[in-house]
Amino acid sequence: MKNLYQGILASVIFATLSSFSFAANINDPLVGKWKTVDDRTGYSRADVEISKKPDGTYEGVIVATRSVPGTEKMLTCTNCPGNLKDKPFLGLPFIWGFKQNPDNPREFNHGRVLDPIGGKIYKGKARLSASGKHLNLRGYVGVSVIGRSVTWIKY
Q1: Tens of pLDDT, residues 51-98
Q2: How far apart are CA 110 and CA 75, in angstroms?
Q3: HSE-CB of 58 using CA atoms within 13 angstroms
Q4: How far, in Å, CA of 51 to CA of 59, rounded?
Q5: For residues 35-51, average pLDDT
Q6: Tell me: domain 31-154, CATH 1.20.1440.230, correct?
Q7: Could you write out the DSSP letters of every residue in 58-116?
Q8: Nearest to 31 by CA among 114, 90, 100
Q9: What is the SS3 assignment for 82?
Q10: What are the residues facing 150 on neighbouring strands?
């Protein structure tokens, strides 16, 4: 009987802690699903789900892909470097290592951005709009001036 009570208590504690973690992520405007928009074509190429890791950094994983009209849908990251090469796009880490700027909670810095088409990894920074519905993501080499910016839409 004692083991039964301990099991029930452990379940209640786990459920309570999980709900606190879930509630914290609901209030985090960066966490959730985002529709990427290709800056060159204007088409949405993928959906990315961003989560906050236990170390406080953010990671985005591809959860859906689409092809640009008139092109074949790409399924694997044939141009990706290292251990990401030939991995399926679904589940592929797309952004990682972003840290919230303590001086401006809408800015996220020190991240990495994977260009799954070209296969390169760039330094990254991001900024949330005041409404929290748009994310301006910049990937760059060396200094921020040399790079590309894209805007993602939260849904």
Answers
A1: 999 999 999 999 999 988 888 888 999 999 999 999 999 999 999 999
A2: 28
A3: 26
A4: 6
A5: 90
A6: no
A7: EEEEEEEE-PPTTSPPP-B-TT--GGGTT-BSTT-EEEEEEEEETTEEEEEEEEEEEET
A8: 100
A9: helix
A10: 137
